[in-house]
Write a structure and sequence with these properties.
This protein is an alpha+beta fold. Helix content is about 45%, strand content about 25%. The chain has helices at about 5-15, 20-25, 30-45, 50-65, 70-75, 100-110, 135-140, 170-180, 205-215; strands at about 80-90, 115-120, 125-130, 145-160, 185-190, 195-200. The longest helix is centred in the first third of the chain and has 17 residues, at about 50-65. It starts with a helix and ends with a helix.
Amino acid sequence: MIAVPEVVKKLIKKIPFIEESISEGFINLSSLARKLKPQIENELMKEVTEGSVIMALKRIEQSKKRFSPIKKAFSSSPDILVRSNLFSITVKRLDFTPDKHKRLLDYNKEMEYFLTISQSEFETTITGSEELQNKLKTLFSTNTIIVEFHKLSSITIRLTKNVSTIHGVYYHILKTLAWEGINMIELISTYTELTIILSKDDIEKAFSRLKELFED
């Protein structure tokens, strides 16, 4: 039979960032318990005490404090690389032919510009140094370009090899940016690298907050 802690946990997961706010002590548990109590009673179809709801919230608070995926994944602050003067275009996948792919890689060989290519079911996104813009425009016709972004920067975080076995690492990194109201344009990941593409206006704040996250 479903119990109060299970219902509380389910309700909390529906509210963005509230678990972190509880673990950091930003929220008065008694006030939150009073707010959740009617929903819990409706779910269980019976009356519950405010004290039982507070106890369930305290368990969430304690469990969140015990587990820190960032500390578990990184014994020290990782290398963080920042690049600027980037742009990004997304094209229809059918227009990104093997020949165009090869020509794009050949362009990059000449000067070793920053370049990433992400291909999905229907679209291909190319993010690179601004010096590649004109050459890319010659590869793709205007009607196949879905969207373009300019004046971008990137943050690349060097990951440890055990990150893939620890849940919540990417969440805590991206949550840190979301809390600051920083919008992510593109996310690129490999086995030991995570690259976040942002507007150049957000790069200073994003870098500062991520440094704080890994140094805490």
